[in-house]
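Postdoc handover notes: sequence design on the structure in folder B. Input tokens:
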């Protein structure tokens, strides 16, 4: 109890004394919104799913397999709402206490919560991109067509196959969010990692870059990370519970 409150107070003190705080989020921030963590041992969906379904080669070979899975998973994503941790980050940005959020998530929940400066390293499942003409369309509209029986859904402009605008295995990270994330990490004086094991390359490079440029680091994650030893605070509590505690003491 007091440990949680002490850490929340220390978290806030570090934020208030920083001038370039940046937040990095992974799947763990969205599990309390009901979005499954694809990589979690035991519960990870990718253990049940053939990974080629979400690889570029596999998608190009047969996009219908991906959309067959989507019919099952889309309703979960569609009904997911941001939780208190997403809301806390939007509020911290609103108060100019953080410069922005770098995320590995593709669920769009940071934006739903009201965060404006969001850099999506792995793209977004909210959009579909045409494999032929690269036009972006809303995934909601594409999924309506899949639900109505059009699999794969096709581009309104040219009739090409629509692919989710999230990074599949075998694809490079989108350049713009990556460059901006690098810039934010280089100039950070406080790097807050939330809900990520910080193991997956190249996203694990960002806390490393921040630390080498003199930043402090805070880690909120339910399992150990390679950066725990260097962190000012390590929080193993539920992220929502800790966020509530921080929100309750915001000045
Ligand atoms: Zn097209």
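Designed sequence:
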């Amino acid at each position: 109890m007091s440990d949680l409150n002490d850490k929340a107070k220390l978290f806030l003190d570090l934020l208030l004394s920083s001038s370039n705080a940046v937040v990095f989020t992974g799947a763990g921030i969205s599990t309390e919104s009901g979005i499954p963590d694809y990589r979690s041992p035991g519960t990870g969906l990718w253990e049940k799913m053939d990974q080629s379904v979400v690889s570029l080669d596999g998608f190009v070979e047969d996009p219908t397999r991906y959309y067959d899975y989507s019919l099952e998973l889309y309703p979960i994503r569609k009904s997911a709402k941001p939780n208190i941790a997403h809301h806390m980050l939007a509020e911290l940005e609103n108060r100019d206490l953080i410069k922005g959020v770098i995320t590995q998530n593709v669920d769009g929940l940071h934006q739903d919560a009201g965060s404006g400066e969001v850099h999506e390293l792995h793209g977004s499942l909210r959009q579909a991109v045409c494999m032929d003409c690269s036009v972006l369309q809303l995934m909601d509209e594409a999924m309506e067509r899949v639900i109505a029986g059009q699999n794969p859904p096709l581009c309104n402009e040219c009739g090409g196959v629509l692919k989710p605008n999230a990074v599949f295995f075998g694809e490079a990270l989108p350049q713009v969010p990556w460059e901006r994330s690098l810039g934010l990490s280089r100039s950070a004086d406080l790097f807050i990692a939330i809900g990520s094991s910080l193991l997956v390359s190249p996203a694990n490079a960002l806390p490393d870059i921040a630390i080498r440029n003199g930043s402090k680091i805070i880690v909120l994650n339910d399992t150990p990370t390679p950066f725990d030893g260097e962190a000012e605070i390590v929080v193993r509590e539920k992220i929502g519970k800790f966020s509530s505690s921080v929100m309750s003491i915001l000045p």
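Context for whoever picks this up: The chain has two domains: 1-35+82-122+172-251, 36-79+124-166. Don't rerun without checking with the PI first.
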